[in-house]
Amino acid sequence: MHEVDMTVALVRSLAQWREEQPGAPEIRRVVLQVGAFTTVEPDALVFAFGVQRASMPFLQRAELHIEDVPLVAYCPACAVEYRPVIGERYAHPPCGEPMGDIRSGRQLRIAQIETFEEPVYA
Amino acid sequence: MHNTASAALGRELLSENTHLAQHNREHFDEAGVFVVNVMSAPGAGKTTLLEQALPLLARRHRVAVIEGDMATELDADRLRERGVDVLAITTGRACHLDATMIARGLHHGETKLDLPSLDVIVVENVGNLVCPAEFEIGEHRKVALCSVTEGVDKPLKYPIMFRAADLLVITKLDLLPHVDVSLDQLVTNAKEVNPALEVIALSAKTGEGVLNFVRWIAAGRAAHAPPVAVRA
């Protein structure tokens, strides 16, 4: 359900970005990195985006591409990175140490925006 | 024909909310108010715990509640009956409070909270173990409740919430003899996700452990409010 709100934030960010661009180009493709250790369901995000872009002329032809980012944690005892199994085990299997720093997997990041226009640089 | 005009952005989707949450936090800090965000699944016992804990906390602290609910003010009314000031925010379709709702509530709410006259604000978030974990509101501490009747696997299934929390409050301790749940296993699972997590087990019904929760808030408030001269 919160994917709707996150999509609102996404659309607002895109609108803001577009206003900053010379010529206010129409957006063709957006790449969004979605970490595995977030509460976001990518399908729900794509669905919500499909609904919300309809009311935005500069987004009507835009495609949302989700780039899944796995959860990578750091085990301080073994000084290695590893991938916890979300929903099952978070501790580092060889040593049982609880999940330390999260190195990756918390992203909800606009990684790339492509437009239909040629970029104009100042 | 498509051009491939690209711009890498690196903008976080929730950066606007995080920024606004920081703004709220600065407001709270200026007024010297310590803010605790209480979250859990529906029915874990947030309102019942606050009904018991807040009158105790109010003996030495000036306390108010921000109550997030999807449609009604039922929970807010329960707390008002205990003599606590309540700012009710109905979130409508949203399954969580966010920084905008808190800011709007603080600035334009019907029952405005007078921040400088307060020591502690306890925010009761919408009952939901998923969404509230992702939205900062400007709080200083996050508390996640899990009742013994929910089983030991909740921290493994909803790890974002238990990772984000500073304190796990295990509720309905009086029901432990009636359920097939190991308290140790629940704590072990939660700490597997978040080794820094503090844990308090209590029963709002019998009162067992409630004072520990009150003391935790009081200690957080004491540690948070440095002498004025030390502040930058």
Descriptive overview:
The complex is a heterodimer of chains A (122) and B (232). Chain A has helices at 2-20, 42-52; strands spanning 27-35, 63-69, 72-75, 80-82, 102-104, 108-115. Chain A is α+β, with helices and mostly antiparallel strands. Chain A has a three-stranded mixed sheet with strand order 2-1-6, with helices on one face. Chain B is α/β, with parallel strands linked by helices and 232 residues long. Chain B has one domain: Rossmann fold (3-Layer(aba) Sandwich), CATH 3.40.50.300. Chain B has helices at 15-31, 46-57, 74-80, 99-108, 154-157, 159-164, 183-193, 210-224; strands at residues 5-12, 34-39, 63-69, 85-90, 120-124, 141-147, 167-171, 198-201. In chain B, helix 1 crosses helix 4 and helix 2 crosses helix 8. Chain B is globular and about 45 Å long. The model of chain B is unreliable at 1-6 (pLDDT under 50). The interface between A and B is large, with 41 and 36 residues. Strand 6 of chain A pairs antiparallel with strand 1 of chain B, so a sheet runs across the interface.
Summarize the helices and strands and which ones pair or pack.
The complex is a heterodimer of chains A (about 120) and B (about 230).
Chain A: H1 2-20, E1 27-35, H2 42-52, E2 63-69, E3 72-75, E4 80-82, E5 102-104, E6 108-115
Parallel strand pairs in A: 1-2
Antiparallel strand pairs in A: 1-6, 3-4, 3-5
Chain B: E1 5-12, H1 15-31, E2 34-39, H2 46-57, E3 63-69, H3 74-80, E4 85-90, H4 99-108, E5 120-124, E6 141-147, H5 154-157, H6 159-164, E7 167-171, H7 183-193, E8 198-201, H8 210-224
Parallel strand pairs in B: 2-5, 2-6, 3-4, 3-5, 6-7, 7-8
